[in-house]
């Protein structure tokens, strides 16, 4: 099948995304408005009959002092990754991006290679010889994903040994997901571990209330988020970023982004943002105060968000990134420990891949990013 690729309008791009069961929130046209510091372009793949069969949001970042660009497709493009003629999909894209002035292309195939269910992860945590998720035997392996990786390597795409291709992965390679398809809410609740169920009940008895907020509540979100940043030692995004995200995403779809608060005695103790694209729902950012933890606001909030995702007809509730460390002494271990309590699955994506269109500039930029 011969495919053609060309720039498409945002309307065409959105219509294609809306025709799919799901796609990454980073591949909707409005994500370009969220990442306003990047130049953007929507690409469409067309079959011989003229029907659109794929789409991709490209973000272009200019390198210092040179009019050349890093072209980035976060968690995309949205194409048939298992197509036998994968080269026919990606070669036109590379040619187009080179013509646009890109010196290198970075993409994140939305292809899951392995899954581990909660019992397997728990067994790994309890085994003193196991330090990484990759050391645990996977519950499910997708053979076609290995074929995709082999094809990409043969085409000249590069990936680091640890999943960090070139500039290292920007998006998480390991995520945690709660499957909702063909399950009742009661089954989902029963899948929680004993501690989670007890904490949800404790929050209910204490009178914790979970409510949705709006644009005007983002300042309160930011207050909790900055408390979290100090506690967990990361650099917080500014309030303007979340305001832009809310405005851009909800202008495209009024239910694309939601804001939740868990409060007790009128005081907001935790907060989270939720993103929705088709049947895929993400818990994208979380925040909490240093007080009130004894009433378990975060468990109550996650349960409410899960219930709302289920009511929306979601097939998966995605808790986003985790580290693959199962070492209790690792500062990121608490993240997987908290999420595994939902009874979901850890999933490993193929990771991000680079294609150097100009090897010298690619290497120089790689070095520049490594020293930042």
Overview of this structure, please?
- Helix 7 crosses helix 10.
- The strands form two sheets. The protein has a nine-stranded mixed beta sheet.
- The chain is built from twelve helices and 15 strands.
- The chain is α+β, with helices and mostly antiparallel strands and 372 residues long.
- Helices cover 36% and strands 26% of the residues.
- The protein has two domains: 1-108 and 352-372, 3-Layer(aba) Sandwich (Aminopeptidase), CATH 3.40.630.30; 182-314, Aminopeptidase, CATH 3.40.630.
- 41% of the residues are buried.
Shape: globular
Largest sheet: 9 strands, mixed
CATH fold title of the largest domain = Aminopeptidase
Count the domains.
2
The averaged pLDDT comes out at 94
**SSE sequence, one letter per element:** EHHEEEHEEHEHEHHEHHEEEHEHEEH
CATH homologous superfamily of the largest domain, by name? Gcn5-related N-acetyltransferase (GNAT)
What Rg is obtained from the alpha carbons, in whole angstroms?
21 Å
Going by helix content, strand content and strand pairing, the class is alpha+beta
Write the CATH architecture name of the largest domain: 3-Layer(aba) Sandwich
The total of helices stands at 12
- Uncertain spans, ≥5 residues at pLDDT below 50? 162-168
CATH class of the largest domain: Alpha Beta
- N- to C-terminal distance: 44 Å
What percent of the residues sit in helical stretches (DSSP H or I)?
Answer: 25-40%
InterPro entries: Acyl_CoA_acyltransferase, FEMABX, PG_Glycine_Bridge_Synth
Keywords: Acyltransferase, Cell shape, Cell wall biogenesis/degradation, Peptidoglycan synthesis, Transferase
Organism: Streptomyces lydicamycinicus
Family: Belongs to the FemABX family.
